[in-house]
Amino acid sequence: VHKQSKITFLGTSTAIPDKGSDTASFLINDTILVDTGWGVIDNLRNYDVDPTSLQYVIFTHLHHDHYMSLPSLLFYWMMKKKSLNGLKIIGPPEDLKKVVSASLTFLQQERFFRDSGFPELIELLPGDTYEQSGFKLETCGTIHPVQGLCYRFNDYETGQIFSFTGDTAFHPPIAEFVKGSSLLVTEASLGAVESDPDRNTAQHSGAVDAGKMAALAQVDKLLLIHGSLGSSEACVQAASEHFDGAVQWPKDGETIFV
Ligand SMILES: [Zn+2]
Ligand SMILES: [Zn+2]
Does position 3 have pLDDT exceeding 90, yes or no? Predict the structure, then answer.
């Protein structure tokens, strides 16, 4: 039993990541991967995590930058002869089955890896809850061009509750849902600004939106991710002007304890 929940950031960069970094992706307690980024196998091995030790992949939504290296992960498991039956993949139903099936088709599973099994898919709609012995996941919907989920993670091993929004436009009901979390991980891909609702067709957030969200949610700490790393300091500044708690933009490879 560990006293603190552990979040390791494999990447915190934007959709086309800055050189030497990866798109937003992180690992909870070493075994639960949230989104894959572009290069999950390199990322995990660089930080001494065995890719076959994962138990879950949680997708916030199925935009390419968030699932791009799922085929690499599945291929690694199959090459290591680890049955895919041992992997659970959680995400919104709109595209989950399609993306996992397409990944296995791309890998020519039927021809080359006949007995490699199939991951268990856990499709969650906004409002759904998934619970097992170690944790509980609650969800609410995000505002994004594809179906997306904000997750509220209740770690039964540590008693900690923390939340991560995935990609989303500013949406006060998310703050309401997140309340009671000590930590909020959210995106600031628009940079150190407040989004303009009339021009926000890609439905993302700026750091000002993130700060306002954290203040409404009354969390202790805000972690900003998923933007150009050159603007990360300015983003922390901008969010801090709207939120009294701690604000940080984690570095690739950094572990945050909750
Ligand atoms: Zn994204
Ligand atoms: Zn997205």
Answer: no
